[in-house]
Amino acid sequence: MTRILITGGAGFVGSCIADKLIEDKDNYVVILDDLSTGSVEKLPKASKDNWRFVKADVNKYSEIAEVMLGSRFDYVFHYAALVGVKRTQDNPVKVLNDIDGIKNVLNLSKSTGVKRVFFSSSSEVYGEPVELPQHEETTPLNSRVPYAVVKNIGESFLRSYHKEYGLEYTIFRFFNTYGPKQSKDFVISKFISAALKNEDIVMYGSGDQTRTFCYVDDNVDTCLLAMKNDLIVNDVMNVGGESEVKIIDLAKLIIEMTGSSSKIVFAPALKEGDMVRRCPDISKMKTILKRDRLPLEKGIKNLLASELFKQLISSERGAE
User: H/E element holding 29?
Assistant: First the structure.
């Protein structure tokens, strides 16, 4: 049996990875999360005996050590992190604490025989683009945002642990992933939540910023194929979409698709953390996935039809 640890496994992408992994009865999955931003509602619904949940903080060595020393894992997906532009801007020191979690996971992985660590990095490592599309070999390190700095440090730790200890790794640089389990801290779910309530959709700056969007199934399938087929070993891969969309056009599309009476209102641009353009080179991803990615409109339709998405949005409304 293959034993797999997912830190941040009650979060959006981590929980989707867990769902997919436990479909294989030959996998045993431990989902670890401190529930500071994750939710038990996102844990697998399948009543199978090949997974369990542990509430623990990966940034606290004693808590993660108890889990990793007690179960010898073959693979670790280190997805635990403080995420979200506003949250990370409001809590810059808490963001930096995630460096402890990276060190804890790598120290324990190299000491317990983990075969490979998969790390959720971010498009934020590119800072303001110096070339488009953004290629894995071009990382300008020009962002001052703490979240981007931590992801860059995490990537450096992985390379260093491989060089010194032989610990293998794969770095996934995620570009705007969305799906039914995503909280409304993020742009698509935030806009849909506002549109369904006919509330104003707030646009920071002109709305001409561009992003690409990746449906979560495309993200998860790519990452798991990299694990299963021993691909992107000791390497980096962009995981995202390739069609740039202006944020203001995204808002208009969502208003149209929901039949909403929401109005777009403008607010001052964010001082930091809102890069002008994001567009990845996804050549590696396409080689691995070997199928078309889900178009944005179809992905939004999936969200609007998803009972889970409606429940999460509803529960988050109640917490406001």
Answer: strand 27-33
